[in-house]
Structure formats: C-alpha cells, structure tokens
Amino acid sequence: ERFALALQALRAGLATSILLHDADVFFRRGGLLAMAQQIASLPAGTDFAVSDNGPRRNETFDDLNWGIAWISGSSTSRRFLECVLAEWDHPSFAPPRGFERHFYFARSQPRLNHVLEAAISAGRGPPAVCTFPRHKQDAAMRHMTNLRTAHAKLICARAEGVSHAPRRPSAATLWPPRASACTLAYAPPENATISEQKHAFRAALAVRAERGCILALPTVRYQGRLVPFCKVFDPTAVPLGSVDSP
After folding, report:
1. How many helices, marked H, and strands, marked E, lie in the chain?
2. Domain boundaries, the chain
3. Angle at CA 116, nearest 5°, toward 115 and 120?
4. What CA–CA distance (Å, rounded) separates 108 from 149?
5. 102-137, pLDDT tens digit by residue?
6. What span, in angstroms and rounded, lies between the C-alpha atoms of 40 and 241?
7. Which of 182, 184, 181, 193 lies closest to 218 in space, CA to CA?
C-alpha cells in the first residue's frame, strides 16, 4: 500500500513531503517541474493537495482523486494517514454480500475521502486539503484514469506522445551484430475517411511485422479535424511491443 510506504518514509525522516501518483499518470516534458512549482505555491498550512475529480460525481465520496497526491509531512497529515491505515480493515468498510464489486468497497479513493469528510465534519484540527488547478495539472501530466486495462493506457499514452516504447539496443551493442531496428511512419491524407485510415493502419501493421520495425502511431482526423487515436481505434487490439509515439 503506497500510503503506508509514504507514512513510513515520513516517519523515518527519509522525506519531508511526498508526491504520490498512480502508475497510469504520465508526466509531459517539464511536467514534474511544473507540479513542483504548483506545490511550492500552495497556501501555508496545506496538508494535502490532490486532484479534483471533475464535474459532480454520481458516486458518494468520489469528488477528490488521489491518483496524484501531495502529502506535506505535517503532523496533521501523518495523523490522518495513521487513522486511515489503522481502520483500513474495519468491518464497516467490508462489503455486504452482493456488493463486493461496488466502487466504494473495490477502490481505496472513496475510503480516503470518507474518512477525510468525517474529519472535516468533526472540526477538531481537520486536514487542510487543496486541489491542483485543473488547467495547470493537465498541462503538466496526463492521467489515463478512464481506461480499464494497462495495455489500453499504454497505447493511448503513446498515441498522445506522453509515453514512449522502451528503447531498443543499438546495433553496436548487439551480438551477433545485426541491423538496427527501424521505425515505420506514415501520414494519412487529411481528407481520408475513418474507414480508409483504419485500412491504412492495418496495412502499416502488416508491413511493420514483415520488416521487424516499430510503427509510429499515426495522427487521426475526422471531418478534417484532429481527434485522439483512441477515440477511433481500439487500443486493446494494437500490439504493445509494435508501436511507439508519433
């Protein structure tokens, strides 16, 4: 549990504050520095800074997103984590029969928010929580939070240019020596239909496989306008080891 490790690091003096993020958070170029600048500008006395989960949620205790969270290391922040972790397996958090997959019981985020709201309601030295400004956060990072599988998250992150395939060894480091891996790229005509773009992509994957290349994911257009790759293509059908960012 990452929050337990964060608390352990704070207790041991290994860090004065900690920035945690989910594995599906991808920082843009210079994004980590931008987040550090946002943290430095937080009001004095802030115990936590987290993401705003967007428009009002239908689910209870889901308005704050802990997928990226800054923990100040203050005594209040440590006490809050201690409380949450101590009660993590409390029977009140156990799902009733038939509700094992309900979002509240299946995820850690509602539990954190529930305890936080209870602490604020109690009014006895509650944690001070801020949210990162949405426009600044989006400029610094991309959180692939609405995709179900790690495969889809990685493909879509590569398509958006916020993640890259692992670097292949160069020809000079391989034994026996062989030609270095190639990268195949193409640009569909701006007036190509979605059907034509899908046909071109299938053909490019076939050529890539034949030549042993990495395929640079193409830009996608709909009615002359750029649209996200994953709005048109099924990312789960794209071989992960075969493609890279544009």
Report:
1. 9, 11
2. 2-138, 147-244
3. 115
4. 18
5. 666 667 788 888 888 888 888 778 899 999 999 999
6. 38
7. 184
